[in-house]
Design goal:
heterodimer; A: mainly alpha; 12 helices; B: 319 residues; alpha/beta; Rossmann fold; Alpha-Beta Plaits; 2 domains; six-stranded mixed β-sheet; 14 strands; 36% helix; binds adenosine-5'-triphosphate; binds magnesium ion
C-alpha cells in the first residue's frame, strides 16, 4: 500500500520535473502580496514596523498558496476521468487510495517547497523567526495541503466537469478567504463575523500560523488547527476514494 | 473456460438535469463463455452495451445482477484476484498524455509488482515487440493515434495476463495499422493468451476472431463462429433494386432455392445457397412476374446479414 503510494508519487514528481513552470507561476501571487500588501499593514500593527506586519501577514500568504494552489489540484484529474487513465488504474493491481494519495503527497511536497520560497522572501524583507516556528509552519502547510488537495480531487471526481468545478471552487473560495482573516486579522471584525469565522477551518490555520510566528507555542489554536486538518484530510480522502468507485456508474 | 458469465445485467441511473433521473438498461442479460487461448469478439453497434459488458468482466463496473467468473474468480467478490489475471485496454486508451510512454509503461509494471530492474526489462521487451523504442521518450500527447494505441496495448500486457480485454482496439486506425494490430493480437493467442475484444467492424470479427457474439440493445442476438453464423443465413445474397419491393418479395419467397428475404433501405435482399447457379433462375422468375430490375448484385453473405436477420436492421446504420 505504502509502496503504491510512493510509486504514484514518483510518477507525479517526474511529470512535475519535466514541466516545472506552473508551480513557479503559482507562487508569484503570494510573493506579490508580501511585497505590495504587507507594507500597508504597518498602519495597524502596534509599533508600525514592517517586521510586525510580516509576522501577521506571512502565515496568511502561505495559506493563500495552500488554498489557491491545492484547491485547483483536482483539475488535472478531470481529464483523467475521460481519457481512461483512472479506468485503467481502477482495474489494475494498484491499491485504490494510493491513486489519490500519491497525487496528494505530490501536492504537499510542492506546497512545502513553495512555502520555503515565500519564507525566504519574507526573511529578505526582514522577518525573523526561529527554526521551530519554520518547522511547525511547514508541517501545518502539509496538513492543510492534505485537506485542500483531497477535497479538490474529491470534487473533481464527483463533478467531472472543468466548468462546474471552477464555478464551485470560486463560489467557496471568496467567503472562505474573507472569513479567515487572511488579509486583515479577524480581531478587527465585528462580533458576528468573528463567530462565523470559527466555523471556517482556514481561520484556525491562519491564527495558528500567526501564533507560531509570534513565538506563542502554547496557543490553543495550534493543536486545534492540526487536529482539524488531519480529521478533515482523512474525511476528504475517504470521499475521493468513494467517488473513484462511483466513476464506473 | 477463462470467462463464464451468467445473466449479467447493468442498469445505470443517469442524470437528466434539473434533478430528474432516467434508468438506462445498458446490458439486459448476457451469458458468455470464452475458452482459454481463444480470440473472442463482441460485435455490435454503438450503444449496444459492449463497453459496459467488458467493464463488468474487468471488475470496473459492478453488475446490477448476474454473476461472472474470470480466470476462476468471481468478478465482484474476488475482484482483486481477477485484476491480477487480466490486462485491460479501455476504449479511451488510458495513457497519461503528459508523461513519456516509457515512464507509464515502467510505472504500470511496478504497480503489477515488478522490481525496478524487472520493470525496466519488461518495458524494453514490450517496446521491442510493439516497435515503440524510438518514440518511448516523447510525451504521449505528441504521438499519433496508432502509436498511442500500441502503447496502450503494451501497458495492458505488462503483467503477462492470461486474458486481455481490448475495447475497440482498432477504431480510428488506418488499414496498415489495423492489419498490424490484428497480427499482434494473433501472436498473443499463439502464446496462449485469451483475448476478448469488442468491435463494430464486421470484417474484423470475421477475420480475426475464433468465436463471437453479436450484441444489440444489451442482449446477445447470435453466437458462434463467423462461419457458423453466416451458414445459418445462407452462403450468398442477391441484392435487388426494383420498384415494387413487396411484389418481388412475395414472388421470390415462393421460389424453392430462396431461403429467406429481407427488405432493407429500399432494396431487397434474397438469401440463397450456390448463388452463381441459381441467379439465372431468379432472373427468369422476376421476368416472368413482369418485374423490372433496376440493379442487381450477388455477394457472399456477411455478418451484417446475420445481424439483419436477427434485428431487422443493418449494422452499418444501426447506430
Ligand atoms: N456511466 C453511464 N451512465 C449512464 N449510462 C451509461 C453509462 N455508460 C453507458 N451508458 C449507456 O449504456 C448504453 C450502452 O453503452 P456502452 O458504452 O456499453 O455501449 P457500447 O456498445 O460500448 O457503444 P460504443 O460502440 O459506442 O462504444 C448506452 O445507451 C449508454 O448511453
Ligand atoms: Mg464502447
Amino acid at each position: 500500500m505504502f509502496r503504491h503510494t510512493m510509486l504514484f508519487l514518483g510518477h507525479e514528481l517526474g511529470t512535475l520535473r519535466r514541466n516545472p513552470a506552473w508551480p513557479i507561476l503559482g507562487i508569484m501571487q503570494p510573493v506579490l502580496y508580501l511585497l505590495l500588501f504587507a507594507p500597508l499593514l504597518t498602519s495597524i500593527t502596534p509599533n508600525g514596523t514592517l517586521e510586525e506586519a510580516l509576522v501577521v501577514f506571512t502565515p496568511a500568504a502561505l495559506m493563500m498558496i495552500a488554498l489557491f494552489g491545492s484547491m485547483f489540484a483536482g483539475f488535472g484529474m478531470i481529464n483523467e476521468t475521460r481519457n481512461g487513465v483512472l479506468e485503467r488504474l481502477a482495474v489494475s493491481q494498484a491499491w485504490r487510495p494510493a491513486i489519490i494519495l500519491g497525487r496528494v503527497a505530490k501536492d504537499m511536497i510542492m506546497l512545502v517547497l513553495q512555502s520555503l520560497v515565500i519564507l525566504g522572501v519574507a526573511a529578505l524583507m526582514g522577518l525573523r523567526i526561529g527554526l521551530p516556528a519554520i518547522g511547525l509552519m511547514l508541517l501545518l502547510m502539509a496538513v492543510t495541503g492534505l485537506f485542500a488537495a483531497n477535497l479538490s480531487y474529491g470534487l473533481a471526481l464527483a463533478v467531472r466537469d472543468e466548468n462546474g468545478m471552477s464555478q464551485i471552487v470560486q463560489f467557496f473560495l471568496l467567503p472562505l478567504m474573507l472569513l479567515s482573516g487572511l488579509m486583515l486579522p479577524m480581531s478587527v471584525a465585528p462580533d458576528w463575523m468573528q463567530t462565523a469565522a470559527r466555523f471556517n477551518p482556514l481561520y484556525h490555520a491562519v491564527e495558528a500560523g500567526r501564533a507560531m510566528f509570534a513565538g506563542d507555542y502554547s496557543d490553543t489554536t495550534i493543536p486545534i488547527a492540526f487536529g482539524l486538518f488531519l480529521v478533515l484530510g482523512v474525511l476528504t480522502l475517504t470521499w475521493s476514494v468513494r467517488s473513484l468507485r462511483k466513476l464506473a456508474g | 473456460m477463462i470467462i463464464e458469465a451468467h445473466d449479467l445485467r447493468k442498469t445505470f441511473v443517469a442524470r437528466r438535469g434539473r434533478g430528474r433521473t432516467e434508468e438506462v438498461e445498458a446490458v439486459r442479460g448476457i451469458d458468455l463463455s470464452v475458452g482459454e487461448g481463444e480470440i473472442f469478439a463482441c460485435l455490435g453497434p454503438n450503444g449496444a452495451g459492449k463497453t459496459t459488458t467488458v467493464r463488468m468482466l474487468a471488475t470496473f463496473t459492478v453488475p446490477t445482477s448476474g454473476t461472472a467468473r474470470v480466470a476462476g474468480f468471481d468478478v465482484v467478490k474476488e475482484a482483486a484476484k481477477v485484476r491480477e489475471k487480466i490486462g485491460y485496454v479501455g476504449q479511451a486508451g488510458g495513457i497519461d498524455d503528459n508523461a513519456p510512454g516509457r515512464a507509464s509503461l515502467v510505472m504500470a509494471a511496478r504497480i503489477a509488482g515488478l522490481s525496478r530492474a524487472q520493470a525496466l526489462a519488461r518495458a524494453d521487451e514490450l517496446m521491442a515487440a510493439f516497435s515503440l523504442a524510438e518514440i518511448a521518450d516523447r510525451p504521449v500527447k505528441t504521438l499519433s493515434g496508432g502509436q498511442k494505441r500500441r502503447f496502450s496495448l503494451a501497458i495492458g500486457l505488462v503483467n503477462r495476463p492470461p486474458l486481455v480485454f481490448l475495447d475497440e482496439p482498432t477504431t480510428g486506425l488506418d488499414p496498415q495499422n489495423r492489419a498490424n494490430l490484428w497480427d499482434e493480437i494473433r501472436a498473443l493467442r499463439d502464446q496462449g493468451t485469451s483475448v476478448l475484444l469488442t468491435t463494430h467492424y464486421l470484417d474484423e470479427a470475421d477475420a480475426l476472431c475464433d468465436r463471437l457474439v453479436i450484441v444489440d440493445h444489451g442482449r446477445i442476438v447470435a453466437e458462434g463462429t463467423a462461419a457458423e453464423l453466416k451458414k445459418e443465413v445462407a452462403g450468398d445474397v442477391v441484392t435487388l433494386r426494383l420498384d415494387d419491393l413487396a411484389a418481388a418479395r412475395a414472388l421470390l419467397d415462393a421460389e424453392p432455392y430462396i431461403k429467406e428475404t429481407q427488405e432493407e433501405g429500399g432494396s431487397l435482399r434474397a438469401y440463397l445457397d450456390d448463388g452463381e447457379h441459381n441467379l439465372p433462375a431468379l432472373l427468369r422468375a422476376l421476368e416472368a412476374g413482369g418485374l423490372a430490375i433496376r440493379s442487381i448484385a450477388l455477394d457472399r453473405a456477411t455478418l451484417d446479414d446475420v445481424f439483419l436477420k436477427h434485428t431487422g436492421r443493418s449494422l452499418r446504420d444501426a447506430a
